[in-house]
Amino acid sequence: MRRTIPILLTLLLALTLAACSAAPAPAPAADTPAPFTGVEDGVLTVGMECAYAPYNWMQADDSNGAVPISNVPNAYANGYDVMIAKRICEANGWQLEIVSSAWESLTPAVQSKTMDANIAGQSMTAARMREVDMAGPYYYATIVCLTTKDSPYAAATSIDDLAGGRCTSQSGTIWYDSCLPQIENAELLAPADTAPAMIMALQTGEVDFVCTDLPTAAGAAAKDDRLVILNFSGTDGDFRFADEAERAENVNIGIAVLKGNTVLLDAMNSVLSGMSEGDFNALMEQAIAIQPDI
């Protein structure tokens, strides 16, 4: 029995020491990185063609509130898109940087985070919104055709009256991909790279008419009185969509941001939701009034 007591004391001492030894402190949790917004530096970098009046254009000075184009020396951007971008930046305390980009490069630039947003007259189509998120609408557009006063199509009251005509529009748009193919026997020429090139094709007689949205057509007609706008909206002769939801997504104009960038999306929508359709139209009229000659 005497030999048992020391053994028991030894075991009790070992258990006491084990209990008293502090458990290792848990490793501190790694800081969760803040979600990407693109404006962490206080600058909103916006892509646009700077060649799509009255939405956006390039000019030689800062008149009428134009903003420098960061990647084009001694050039400034202006237009409806610039006006909207400035309002968003003013409301959020951001600086505005405008970058000139080709139309087909706009979406990839947002996806790669080269641009924080595209404010570039882009329709809120289902296909585009699979690639980016879009704030807005920031304009409610109407699809129209544009022809010349001496054209045999100048009196058209329906897309049926445009049958057989030579036509085009800008590449990568619903006007070229979805609208013009609805015209029976239309001779659809290769798409134009830019809106000015599209208008030029009409002015030089290369095509009989082009398809675009109302602001683009109105801006062109304001600078060239030979042009006539054919607006079939609200009639049975209009371009056809499966339903009103499809029509809306093809004519409403939105701002593209990176998929999942809810912080930037919400900040933009907060500004746009405070503007009415009348506000948008008034701002567009102002843009058309100050746009330079084509």
Q: How many helical stretches?
A: 10
**Number of domains as seen in the coordinates:** 2
Number of DSSP strands? 13
The CATH topology name of the largest domain reads D-Maltodextrin-Binding Protein, domain 2
CATH class group of the largest domain:
Alpha Beta
Shape: globular
Indicate the CATH architecture of the largest domain.
Answer: 3-Layer(aba) Sandwich
Strand content: 15-25%
Low-confidence segments, ≥5 residues, pLDDT <50? 1-23
Q: Summarize the helix and strand pattern as letters.
A: HEEEEHEHEHEEEHEHEHEHEHH
Strand arrangement within the widest β-sheet reads: 5-1-6-13-7
Distance between the termini: 111 Å
